[in-house]
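Supplementary Methods S3. Complex input for the adenosine-5'-triphosphate-bound model.
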Amino acid sequence: MLRVGLTGGIGAGKSTVANRFAEHGAVLVDSDRIAREVVEPGTPGLAALAEAFGEDILAADGSLDRPALAAKAFADEESRKRLNGIVHPLVGKRTAELMAEAADDAVIVHDIPLLVEGNLAAAYHLVVIVDAPVEVRVRRLVDVRGMAEADARARIRAQATDEQRRAAADVWLDNGGAQDAVLAEVDALWADRLVPFEANLRLRKPRPPMSPMIAPYDETWPQQAERRLARLRLVAGERLLRADHIGSTAVPGLPAKDVLDLQLTVPTLADADALAGPLADAGFPPLEGEWWDDPQDGSAAPWPKRLHVGADPKRPVNLHVRTPETPAWRLALLFRDWLRANPAERDAYAAVKEELAREHAADGTVADYADAKQGWVNDAFGRAEVWAAQTSWQP
Ligand SMILES: CC(C)(COP(=O)(O)OP(=O)(O)OC[C@H]1O[C@@H](n2cnc3c(N)ncnc32)[C@H](O)[C@@H]1O)[C@@H](O)C(=O)NCCC(=O)NCCS
Ligand SMILES: Nc1ncnc2c1ncn2[C@@H]1O[C@H](COP(=O)(O)OP(=O)(O)OP(=O)(O)O)[C@@H](O)[C@H]1O
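Predicted complex, serialized as structure tokens:
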């Protein structure tokens, strides 16, 4: 099952987007709704709230007086934390139960207002954020929902900043304009990304191979890599020694094929094999066959590794799982750091890549392109080693 985390500030349009996903066939898990269920009359949740905030948060019929609790809970940080401490564990438990009930081929859309605040992004295959400017959100909450303006602003203050949401977003949906516009984006996201992503995940199928087209440096590459590394750290757990963004997309200013190279370091290949299933479930199926890094001078036997590929059709990822005793593991880190520290070498490398990409665009073969590039890279390793010695570089 594909787990999509859907979030955004209050009034941004999460429910609007979530309902459209549901129309397409997504299984919706709605945190606000669960948060209501766990404090229904007669529940231990409601009793705990009354104990913590006083009987005056109860209406005459014994149900929760939501505006009364909101007034107390959003008044200060300590009260809000007390509220969260009571409700969130109950919501978490019920959420896990609902997710476990979903079919293997489900696309779960989890509408969760506090995904960023709770630092939960790594638990999803993809995080979708709905956004609209603060003033637009306040207007909608006041005019359409009938919320008091001060209440709307108090909740906005209690939530994540735009910058924090940007860092967590794999997909950013702008709902500052007409509803039709955001719904059209949702339709495209469903058809072009979520449906094939779910199928790739279930069938453990990598996305199709990349063309050798070189893209200009994208300054969001490091953040995109970091979000995937966070997911990988979560599933790899204690077997993981370290997780790094390597390759050309890890070098600021370097044009590159738009594929993120990530390296997981594990003690032994047996650890890599034990992780094959969990990595596949997290959206990184293993590529079939045996994979080796070739020593550049041809002197030693090739170094074995495991290779996984991202299942997300819109975010190509090559995931190299290596052990620290292979020289390829160390070279991946050295080459990256050397290029980062030496802009002239980086620019020379960019020129070589662009020249080769032009030549191979005609025949369209990625393998030939990679072979030709390796010549420059092998020479560069020599210069990188000199730099490593001079600067006492350590991986
Ligand atoms: C305080 C309560 C009773 C007020 O109820 P009300 O009907 O006015 O709001 P509702 O529950 O529909 O929430 C509307 C929106 O408020 C924001 N919000 C709600 N709780 C919180 C919170 N603890 N911190 C920050 N924002 C919150 C979210 O954007 C949410 O989508 C209610 O919000 C609540 O029980 N909150 C605690 C549970 C919670 O954190 N829910 C959010 C995700 S699990
Ligand atoms: N593009 C839009 N133009 C105008 N109104 C909109 C638009 N999108 C959503 N709305 C309206 O704004 C209000 C807030 O939207 P919605 O309920 O989807 O937000 P939400 O993020 O789920 O809110 P909450 O955080 O309270 O759960 C709703 O009344 C909705 O009908």
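Residues 8, 10-16, 32, 113, 140, 144-145, 175, 178-179, 182 surround adenosine-5'-triphosphate (ligand 2) (CB under 6 Å). The longest strand covers residues 303-309.
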